[in-house]
Every structure is written in C-alpha cells, then in structure tokens.
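Dear U.,

For the methods section draft, I wanted the exact inputs and outputs in one place so we can describe them consistently. I've listed the two proteins in the order they'll appear in the manuscript figures. Please don't edit the token lines directly; just add comments below if something needs changing.

First protein:
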Amino acid sequence: MSGARIDPHWSYHDLRAVVLENTRLRLTVFPALGAKIYDFILKSADRNFLWHNPRLEPRRPVFGQNFDDAWCGGWDEVFPTCDVSTYRGDTYPYLGELWSLPWSWRVEEPGPSRVCLYLDRTTVIAPARMEKWITLTRDEPVVRFRHRLTNLGTHPLDFVWGIHPCFEVAPGHRIDAPARVGVVGHTATAAFGPVGTRYPWPHAEGCRVPPPSCGWCEGHYAIDLSAGWVALTDPVARIGIGLAFPRDVFPVLWCWLVYGGWRGHYHAALEPWTGWPHQLDKAVAANRHRTLRPGERLECETLAVAYTGLSSVSGVGTDGGVRG
C-alpha cells in the first residue's frame, strides 16, 4: 500500500473495529470497548506488540465490573483511579471508568497523507470528559496521540490518570526507562522486597524480562524520571516499541510485570501516570494527584514508535526518534 488509510467498517467478535494503517503500522481500535487499542502491528516483522488474553476474547463489559475478569488485553485508558478507591463518598471501580464505557468517535482525517480518529467519552461518577485523537502519517512508524481531559463539574476534580498499554514479552526482553529510583507498589513474592521498598532503578543494565517459570507478579513505580519515555526491546530480533510523553504531565511510570505469577499470564504493562500511588484516595493523601478547577482542561501529546535495529534504548524523543 501507499499512504495512510482508515477503515471503520470492520467487526471482531461483534465489536466495531476501526483499522488505522500506513506503510509501517496497523492499529485496531474498539470504540465500544473503552476506545481500546487491540492491535499495534509492525508490518515488516509481523509483530503485534500488544498482549492478548489467550483465554478471553474481546467483549462488551458491564460498567463497574472487575477489570481482571473482563480484560482481553491491549491498550486502555485508566481514570480517575486504578485500584478501587472510595473518595469523597463515591467508590470508583477497578481501573476506573473509561475502560468499560463505549466512546463516541468519528474519522477526522481520511488520508492518504494522514489519518486521524477522534474519540470522546464522559464519565459516570466523575464529572469529566476525555477526548483522544489518534493520528498516523504516511510513512512513519509512529502513532501520535492527543488527549484533552475536562472537568465538567462545579467543584475541583481530583484524579490520577494512566495510559495502560500491555505488551507481549519473552525471556530476555529489555525494559529501558530514564528513572533513578524504583518503588515496590505490589508484590506476590517479595522478589524485590516488601511493598514500599526503594531501590536504584537498573537503568545501566535495563530490566531484563525473566522466564514465566519465575512466577513473579510485581508492580513497581519508576520515579525520579530524567525524561519522559520508556521502551521495550527484543534484543534478539532487534525490534521494539517506545513511548514518549510529557514528564510534567506524567512524572512516574507504573510497571506491572506479570511473569507467570498471576493467572498464568506473561506480559508487561508500562504505564505513564500523572501521580502515585495509583489509588486515588492514597494519591491524594500523599499529595501526588492532579486537580482540575471547574471548566479547566488538561491537554497533552504523547506518541508510540516501533523501531528496528536496536538491542537497547537510551532515549525516545517527542519527534519519534529512538536512540540506541
């Protein structure tokens, strides 16, 4: 093919699927399933970077249900909390509100030089609207995102917000991020110590993914970032995916590392977050949350880039450039 195109006429397991494609990449988006990105495929390698639950197909969730029991994998939006949180008299569901709601959408640019899909959703409990633009240009291995979050209420809105891509992994894959400190937020095995343990982030050697037989289920915060990026690389195939994000909006990474220790699954979610811990009530107590005044908006641009020819990464730029 030449150029970029967008096709909104597909369906998968009775879900509307919007396919965005250029010469390098193919994305599949389910607007009715929380605007989930289900596929992020590098065509030249026939590699889908996103993890799919091998035991659960995509299906419409019920608002407020347990995310873990409905999660088919892919890339989700998390707002205004991650874990269940009761705050100011309201109880917010696990992984927040956006993932389980259908989003409105329209094709803003049809190609061929550029395609853009616009999606938006108001939340049920929090008085908020999230808008998202997903853009592909003709020849770049880069997906650009623009988000706009608006407080629709009459009082200040406290929240934490995370971008939640979950990636396929294999033994020896490498996670690179410009963090100085790691903090254990969840552990099933105390492999790095109990919750709250701090340690020097292993940015010199990177974090190597162990085999699923290790039985780990770890959730770690990577804090004190020197820049806003994270990358996952297959050093054997010399391909990978990187995220770049504004550090002033997302000052922390939540790394959900499931290496055989949760339901037999094997994946890594590398998530930029606006604050931590990712339970809203605890983030507010620690004064590491965000607040929007009535009518105020938070806007930002992020990107994801597929790269080849590298076995490790020392930086991902806002222009989509990746340094080895």
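Second protein (the one for the lower panel):
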Amino acid sequence: MVRGAKLIAVVAAWVELGIVDKLAKATEPVPVDELPGDRRAVELSASVLANAGLLDGDGEAVRLSPTGRRLYEQGELPSPKNLEWFGDLSRMTDVLREGGPVRDENGRSKVTRGGVRPEDTQRTREFLDMLYRRSAESAAETASWIARHVPAGARALDLGGGHGRYAHELKQRGMEATLFDLPVPADLARERFGDELRVVAGDYKTDDLGGPYDVALLSNIVHGEDDASNRALTQKLAQSLAPGGLLVIKDMFLDEQGRDPENAAFFTTTMLYYTEGGRSYSLRDVKAWYESAGLEGFDVIAVESFTLTLARRPR
C-alpha cells in the first residue's frame, strides 16, 4: 500500500508540473535536464515510474514506455483536471465520521448524478469524453451480445446513455436505438453523433421513457442510485418493454461476501464520495429488483471487467 501511494504521488506530481505532457509530445527520449523541476528530484522519482513500467530511459534521458503512452492516451493517468480527486482522498476521515458525499474545502457537497454536474458543462464534457474513450471494447461486446438475443430491427433504449457509444453500437447492429439522458449529456451526444442517433433529453426518474421497446439497457447506472431508486427504475423500465422484451443491466457487481471482484470493491468507495446513496451492488440485489418488477428468466453473463444481468417481461 505504501508503494502504491508513492507511485500515485509521483505520477500526480509529474502530471501537475507538465512533465508527462512534455514526454507525450516528444518523439525521442528527453534529457532529464530539460524537464521541469529540480534535476535530482526528477531523476530519483523517475526510477519509481520506470519500475512501474511507465517510463523508459537510461537515467540521462527518458520517455514514456509503450504502456505509459497507452495509459496517457486512454486518459487512465491522472490529469491536471482530475488531480483534485487525490485531494478528496485525504478527506476519508471526515466521510467516515459524517457520511458521504465528500465536501470541498468550503464545505460544499461534491455530489454528482452519474458524473454529471449540470452547472459545469465543461467538466461534464471532459468526464463523458473520458468514458467514451474507455468504453470502446465494452460497448462493442455488450451490443454484440444483445444483438444475438433480440429480433432484427429491435427497438432499443439506452437509458442514461451519456456519451452515446453504447447506443451507437446498438444501431450499428441494426437496431432502432434511442438514447435517453439528462439535457447536458443529451446535447453532447447530439454533438458527437448528429442525426445518427435518436436522442431524448429528460429525467428518467420523473419523465416518460417512451416505448414499447424490445430491449432496454442500463449501463453503469445502478451503482449511482440507492436500492429504492433502482427498484423503482427497474419497474419503470419493465413497463416500457414490449411483451417478451429484454432488460439488460450492465455493471460491476460484488459477490455475496462483498469483497470481490476488486474493481467493484474499490469502486464502491467512489460512490461513497460522490453519490447520495450509490454503491456496488450484489447479483442478489439485482435479481430482487427484476423479480419485484415481474420480470422472469434472470440470467448472468460474466465478462472480464463487467457483468451483464438480464430478464424478460412475460409474454
């Protein structure tokens, strides 16, 4: 744990000083003397990044390793815009004492709804762009699986679809895809895809969802809501489905002991920090939502980094 904390501290500092950006733009190794900061400090901290596989070099000149460059391009490394998240981690004692969400230095809650801050369009855009970059494989795999279990030309709803990649993948597989989300992400999806997608702006908690649909997808939504909200949302989606229609919930789910897999266990802390009632749920929780909505045939499809759960509206 100490080594991990030191690595994060070094990466964050290199990002904040602009060293990582400088290396990312360079085509050849950059002499350590030409990097921002104290030479000795840069040289010694470089060994940490080299050990982690993020940096290549001989001590006199360095460059991003292939792994480091890939992580940089995919937005997996800290950036100047998200470094405040590391500051939030230092407030864990306050969160444990008082409960979440985390508060800023002025005492204001940093709660978001699905990562969306309506008052900060630019921050929302950056967040959705990051999700778009990181979702290529998962969106393609999810859409491919759905396409094998619905009729050709199926009417598909991507609820809370944000950046639009999942809805676009559904359309690429011959479905009539509708993306439904809050006004700010809906506008950004229209910017990205133009007339390729049908985009509806609204609040899925209060507004009509349309339909009937042959399939509805909830991708990475339920972890941001409390149990009662997810139960109500599942019931609302069930009512929007055509007879025999399929509801697919994609997320990271915990086992019955609440400790595995690792990504779900650690992600639940993020939900503690930035939501009112979100968490990583178990498959047992999801099954209960489906059953309370009158859906049947509960099934689970485990993929490497996420899980698909599904059930159908009775015919």
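Candidate sentences for the figure legend, describing the second protein: Residues 2-16 form the longest helix (15 residues). The chain has two domains: 2-73, 130-312.

Thanks,
Y.
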